[in-house]
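Pilot study result, target chain (532 residues):
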Amino acid sequence: MTQLLRLAIGAALVGTLALVGCSNGDGSDRPDPGSTGSRSVAGDTVARVQLVAAPDATTVAAGSSDGARALQISRALFAGASTVVLAAADPNAQKQAARVAESLGVPMLLSPAASPARPTGPTSPASQANPARSTPEVAPADISREMARLHASTALTFGSGAARFARRLGGVRVVADSRTSGRPALRHGAPPARTVVLIRRGETSIAALATARAAAARVVPVNGRDLRRDPAAIAAIAAAPVGAVVSIGGSLGAPLQLRRRVDVAATGAQLPGGGQVLLPGRRLVALYGHPNSPSLGSLGEQPLAASIRRAKRLAADYAKVSTVPVIPAFEMMATVAAGSPGKDGNYSYEHKLSRLRPWVQAAGRAGVYVVLDLQPGRADFLTQARRYESLLVLPHVGLGLDPEWRLKNNQVHGRQVGTVTAREINQTTAWLADLTARHKLPQKLVVLHQFRLPMISQRRTLDASRDELAILIQMDGFGPPGSKLDTWRAVLAQPPAGVRFGWKNFIDEDKPTFTPARTVRLVPSPGFVSYQ
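Predicted structure:
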């Protein structure tokens, strides 16, 4: 944190002598970057601060007023400050106060009358016309305690009422409507701050933002509630190492969830199409099959480069009729149901990583998402998924589980339709979510194939709660439109919480095959569409 200490550490705080009016060797009193220093206020007031050294802390300043949030950020980022800027309700006064606080590098707080709580229910016309009459969320005692914690001896006040309030605190020198001496802010040459402060775009928090900037934090605006959806925010976070994290407002997530999302954003890895979240908000359109195997689906009907071009053309057809961005994809069979038990006796042929890797890597370079499909036979899904861990740790690779080909120990393919328990699926998805979290990866897609309800037993208990995964049930039936729609409605019945739905078009078996326009008009509109 020493790079962040732009101002002198007060002797009362750390038992050392603060540097006041020190020379830089060039006739100025501007400190060297990273050294201690001081700032003059109104000619003779010296501001000394100490920042909190909590390199990995995560704070959510979730107060419902700017004053409450500024107070929380002051506590999170400042260990001490001999001078504090205090502003009243007037917006112009607050803007002036913010400029001074940022220039000096000291906290900005709002006097209680300037920080009315946001109404949580219906409000009367009188309270709407004069919000300062609302009960303040920040009480005088809150400000008094914070001034004492900071060892503040001077209050620079701006706006009517702020000075009167500051004088009632006692033991604090009050300087009303002060201006700095015009010296440059102590930031030149310093490395980027490790502390990141997040604020949702559209929110106004003058005091909270000024306090964050005064602590030399990097302020990153975020579109929406999940920063992983905002490519610009991801790039801004990834631009420099991240230490402490502070969120202004509670809409960006609880501390643990927020920290995990920031850690993912800090990697800079983004999904095809940008961002780090797959669903909702976009649609994936895939070719299904296995490389160089025309009999297994459309993916293998042409070489690798031609498959990429075909997937992109298909996605472009959907983009013309889709209200959300469309991402090209491969749904690639990693293990294939076998008619004989094989050497391991599991009636499943597991393709080698060396066969799949060139296709997976080329797809990633081309902006094509990949779903690795498993047809495990008598093996279980988790055992087979572990075989492909080295591919699943790639940011653009998800997992598909096909219960039709999950056999019991006395079954063979072609005589029965396979089934799987929700418990086995949950074990597999929990492993994948943990893998995703451990490697700080973008959200992964999990596709569950289904065309009969018994294929997934106890389906209502599927766990789709993990932030790292987007779980989707794909209607996998074929036939004429009426038959497919009947299957679609059956699969949609009593949906598990948090699970989304997808659709498969069979090019040869469906007569006729649904067009892109008809496919996207399904209700709900499929988040994943594949072609076999």
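One observation from the pilot: The radius of gyration is 30 Å. A full batch analysis is planned for the follow-on phase.
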